[in-house]
Structures are given as C-alpha cells and as structure tokens.
Amino acid sequence: MYNFGLIGYPVKHSLSPWIHEQFMKRADIDGAYQLFGIEPEADLRDNINRLKENGINGFNVTVPYKEKVMPLLDEIDVEAKQIGAVNTVLLKNNQWIGYNTDGKGYVRSLKHYYPALEKERAKKTLLLGAGGAARGIYYALMKDGFPQVDIANRTEQSAIDIVSLNNGEMKSDVLSLEQAENELHTYDLIIQTTTVGMTPNDQQSVISLKNLQKETIVSDIVYQPIKTKILQEAENKHANIHHGHTMLLYQAQYAFEIWTNKTVPIEGLDDQLKLLLEGR
Ligand code: ATR
Hints:
Layout: E1 2-8, H1 16-27, E2 31-37, H2 44-53, E3 58-61, E4 75-76, H3 78-83, E5 88-92, E6 95-99, H4 102-113, H5 116-119, E7 125-128, H6 132-143, E8 149-152, H7 156-163, E9 174-175, H8 177-183, E10 189-192, E11 217-220, H9 229-236, E12 240-242, H10 245-260, H11 269-278
Parallel strand pairs: 1-2, 1-3, 4-6, 7-8, 7-10, 8-9, 10-11, 11-12
Antiparallel strand pairs: 3-5, 5-6
Helix pairs in contact: 1-10, 4-6, 4-10
The site of 2'-monophosphoadenosine-5'-diphosphate has 15 residues, from helix 6.
C-alpha cells in the first residue's frame, strides 16, 4: 500500500489525484493520493514532519512551496538544485529526497507527440516567459541536447537569470517580446510558458504569430483553456501544435517512477484528461 500526496495552496482543484489514481490502476498498485493544502501562515516544517508520521511515501509540491520546501529536505537531486525548485519528494530510508520532474516531463511529452525531435532536436527554440516553469524547461532542453534556446520575456532580467544556468552547453540569446515577434520565422520550436492566455484571460496572447512559419511547432504549457489563443492562431496558420495538459501527465509519470520504479503508459490518458478539463 502506497501513500502519496500533494502539498501546496490552494490544492483543491488539482488534477494530480486523478492522474496518480489512473497510474496506480495501470500499474496494479494499491494506494492513495491525498491533497494537503497548507495555508501560507502555517509552519511548513511541522506539516512536512506530519507527512512522515502519517506514513507518506512520497509527495508532489506545487505553488507556493516549490522553493520553500528545499531547506526542509535531507537531500536534493543535482538537477532540482540547479533549477532551484522541487516538485517531487521521495521518502527513502527515512530521508526526504527532492527532485524536479517539470522540465524533464515537458521534454518527454514534446518528444512523444513529435518523435522526430528524438533523432534531430529543433535547431532553434524560443522560450516565451522566464518564470519558474520556463526555468525548468530551459534546463531540461539544455540537458537533452537542444542546440539553441533563446528566451523572450517582458522583464529582461529574469531571462538573463535563466541563461546563467547555461554552462556553455548551448547557444542562448535574450530577446524582448517585440524582437521575438519580428524574428519568429527563424524558430523551429516556440514554447509559451507565460500565464498570459490562461482562463479567464483566454482572449489574450503574449505575442502575435504573424511571422510564424508553417513547419514550426508551437507549444503552450497553459492547459486552461485546452486550446489557448496562441495555439488557435498557430493552427490557423497550419503550424504544428502541442498542448499543455500533456506536460501534466508526463511530469507525473516521472514522479511516479521516482516513487515506485514503475513507468506507466500514458496512452489514452491524454484524451481522458482533455475531456475532464473541457468539462470544468
Ligand atoms: P510560472 O511558475 O507558471 O512560470 P511565474 O513564475 O509567475 O509563473 O512566471 C510568469 C511568467 O509570465 C513570467 O515570464 C511573466 O513575465 P515577467 O517576468 O515580466 O513578470 C509572464 N507574464 C505574466 N503576465 C504577463 C503579461 N501580462 N505580459 C507578458 N508576460 C507576462
């Protein structure tokens, strides 16, 4: 019997219980996945200790604790340390070990839908946004061997901070959003990581795709709505699109591997999750 959970605030609309319950069924594992909403004024350390007393084998971490949880763990995986955020914690020999599966899960999802990227990485990638999500994705793309990942963000300094993760493994330029719009035709892969376009602001889009080429892949990590304005615009221009909800499944698949050593197949769950989100 496994006991998993999620800490964050708020957590009540999280899709993680549904996802991990599907995984447990598919892996023929007996277990539970509980939500632990920890209010901002509560003592995080007390709450983490209580998880151990309650027999939790592993837990996910979401906003606002991905960074705050780090000093409370016994060990942090080298990648999570570099990214500066933890979204998955494993209890091993009574020690809490922190990992980050967001970026890796994103890259796994992208390659699942665009398997040609496994043989040949996109030559030139543009990351829109420089928040926590962009940081994990940037790091994972670099570790996966993408040769050039540029970042465009409203606040230039945040993009510069992310590029400092680069230890010379890839080429990386920082652009303004306006420059990104003008240079769009030079990119093979565009990844939208800002919160712009998220419900209820689903009529907004962080940049215009007027200069988009039709061979380009446009990916959005926003999953509410399922088809954001930018994805709709990309589709209208006959470009390739990649949906945000699939990242949720693949980051969870990684977390489940860390906890159980089992890799569950995702097939079919993407459509089920899409229906679930559309029904909200
Ligand atoms: P997450 O953890 O999901 O990445 P975040 O860390 O809050 O969220 O980052 C939000 C991202 O969306 C940032 O890149 C932010 O740009 P700034 O760094 O300039 O704040 C971007 N963002 C949010 N609202 C935006 C807007 N109206 N226009 C452009 N970018 C916006």
